[in-house]
C-alpha cells in the first residue's frame, strides 16, 4: 500500500464496507471542521494582520523626537542589598516651558550630565517610537492569533464529536460481543 493510500485509509477516505455510520459521521465532522477553517481563517488572519500593520506604521511615524535633557538631581533608594537609582531630568519644551520627569537611572549618573530622551510635539516624555521589526513581528503574531482563534474552537468541536463517536463505537463493540457470546 502506498503512503498516500495509508493516509487516505487512516482518515477514512477509502471505500471500506466495514466502516459504520458512526465512522462516517466522525469523518464528516472532521471534513466540515477543516473546510470551515480554510474558509474562515485566511480572511480573519488578513483582516487582523492588516489592522495590526496599520497601527504599527502609525506608531512608527508618530511625531516624536529625541532631545538631551539635563540631570538635575539623583536619588538612591533601597534596602539590604537592593539599590535603585532615580534621576530627575529637566528640559525646555518647544513652547518655552521647563519640563521635568523622574526616570530610573544607572548608579554612575551625576547631576549636570545629559540624558537622551524621546518627547512628543508638546514636549512631554514618551517611549521611543516603534521599530519596523516590531511592526512586522506584531503583524505576524496578529495573523497567527487570528488563525488560532479560528481553529481552536473548531478543533475542540471535532474532539467533542470524536469523543462521542468513540463512546458509540465502544457501545457497538459491546453489543457485538454480547451478540456473539449469545450465539456461541
What does this structure look like?
This protein is an alpha+beta fold. The protein has two domains: 19-59 and 132-183; 64-126, no CATH class. 54% of the residues lie in helices and 21% in strands. It contains three helices and five strands, in the order ααβββββα. The chain has helices at 3-10, 21-60, 132-183, and strands spanning 64-77, 84-92, 98-104, 114-120, 125-126. It has a five-stranded antiparallel β-sheet with strand order 3-2-1-4-5, with no helix packed on it. Strand 4 (114-120) and strand 5 (125-126) form a beta hairpin. Helix 2 runs antiparallel to helix 3 (132-183). The longest helix has 52 residues, at 132-183. It is elongated and about 100 Å long. It starts with a helix and ends with a helix. The mean pLDDT is 87.
List keywords for this structure.
elongated, 3 helices, five-stranded antiparallel sheet, 2 domains, about 55% helix, about 180 residues, alpha+beta
H-E string: HHEEEEEH
Q: Give a short account of the largest sheet.
A: 5 strands, antiparallel
pLDDT averaged residue by residue: 87
DSSP strand tally = 5
* Cα end-to-end separation: 36 Å
Name the beta content range: 15-25%
Spans where pLDDT lies below 50 across 5 or more residues: none
Shape: elongated
Helical percentage: 40-55%
